[in-house]
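Reopening closed ticket. The problem is back. First fold of the pair:
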Amino acid sequence: MITVLSGGTGTPKLLQGLKEIYDPANMNIIVNTLENDYFSGVYVSADVDTVLYTMADMINEEFWYGVRNDTFITHERLKELGYSELLRIGDIDRATKIQKTMLLENHTLSEAVNIQAQEMGIKSNIIPMSNENSEIELITDIGRLDFHDFLIKHQSSPEVLDIKYSNVIPSEGVVESIENSDAVIIGPSNPITSISPILYLEGVKKALKNTYTIAVSPIVGSDTVSGPASKFMKALDIEVSSVGVASLYKDFLDVMVIDEKDYDLKDELENIVDKVVVTNTIMKTLDDKKNLAGIILNNIK
């Protein structure tokens, strides 16, 4: 049994590879919920839905958000009626979100996600990191911004000065899945807004210290593979490199997987973590994803 810590872009690519070569029924996936909120009257859990669609082979791989070949009839009609949505939500995706919103009237988020995962034929156990409302606030050079306003309305352009997380309680099964796993894989998601919110949950770091943990760096050179991670890392005075990522995870990390382009960082990283694996971490094709997944699994005790 393995547990994967996931955000909404880099790690789902890895999950595509993992589920091809590892039994999905033996996989727990703990997913960031820090960005969850209501939009256009429906509950949006972007990272959770991306993982659901990935594991159900429905994900839109162009944006790593929404459903492949979705239509946008409702979105376009809302615009015609004078309502401009902050998020461009597809029709099939919207149906998923409507169902989740309705389920939340009588179920926790974890229960709602479990119901949807079963209906989509997903064998893995997908666990939202918390059932409580989570929030992230960015302090920027143009003032305080909600995460989605920063990301979508302002296209990630403001400079980030500080980041504020809300404190939430881990959902049932988060700590237990880590404790009962043979290994934990921290995927190549944004280390600040996708992975750290999971790590800060009560009991998670303690559980990781007692579990074999391997992480894939989302940084190649000084560039993030996806998203505005570099701005967030700079705001917290963390070096934008694989070394910076390793420093975030150093209290519990056993193995760090870095890209071939970062080979010159191997010696420095070996002062932080016991083992460093150098390979191609850029996942453009399914073979890339399967190869990286295989290397990770081969480096688990």
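Second fold of the pair, where the issue appears:
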Amino acid sequence: MRLNYILSDLGIGLKRNLSMTIAVVVTIWVSLSLFGSALLAREQVDLMKGNWYDKIQISIFMCTKDSGGRGCTGAEVTTEQKNRIKQVIEASPDTAPEGVFGESKKEAFEQFKKLYKDSPIVSTVTEDQMQESYRVKLKDPQRYQNLVSAVAGLPGVDTVQDLRQYLDPLFKALNGLQVGALVAAALLLVAALMQISNTIRLAAYARRREIGIMRLVGASNFYIQLPFLLEAVLAALIGAVLACGTLWVGVYFVVMQRAQETFRVWQWVGAAETFQATLIMVVVGLVLAVVPTFLTTRKYLKV
């Protein structure tokens, strides 16, 4: 009997506030879709950082007769200078064990010819113009500045290059987009929260006489609140399901079908990350439904 009444009251409430309920569903759908996209964007940035930062090496190029680095004096780097540079690199606490690799002029020239094998520039460059170098792998790629500062300016060192100087601007831009998406999602979630609160407030106000009668006959607070709660939870679940479906469709067509095939060098988010994001989206959707419902209906529970 009680279940029939609750379901009947739920149906009446949905019919009375159909347009408001649809508005709640759409707001939750859009806000959770953007929220889930922001979560996946964060995961994608982390994957890209892990994929590239683990491969980062510091390249230390030696002086040649034509080099203009501050450690150069218009002459080729000497054996003594090379040994000193290597000692500084190996003594650094940031250098990975067995992480120092030397590249001779001959090896550099062979690599140059492979990279530019179809370019006419190969015929204009000689082996003598190549630079000897040390390639250094770090224990922690995040801590690259210490070693760069230690070797830059040493006698015989022309330039020191680190891929982070090229990757950091990219990741900063991605982080900026990620923050922007999170801010927009947060604003939409607040809008959804207010939308649900207004819908429940209108529904409770329209049935305030019924609520008063139920309180006088001894109905519990939870029993009175349950129809409103079910109404909000139903709208939130529909919006969350639509948002999860939107996210899965977006990941499949944008990431799996296009990005993964076009940019194979990157590691992309997949089913595991998407499933985790959808779980968070459903939980957030339920919180958006339950919290404002309890807070809004409390004022109508007093006779």
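Update: turned out to be a display glitch only; the data is intact. The chain has nine helices and four strands. The beta strands are 57-62, 95-103, 133-138, 157-162. Please close again.
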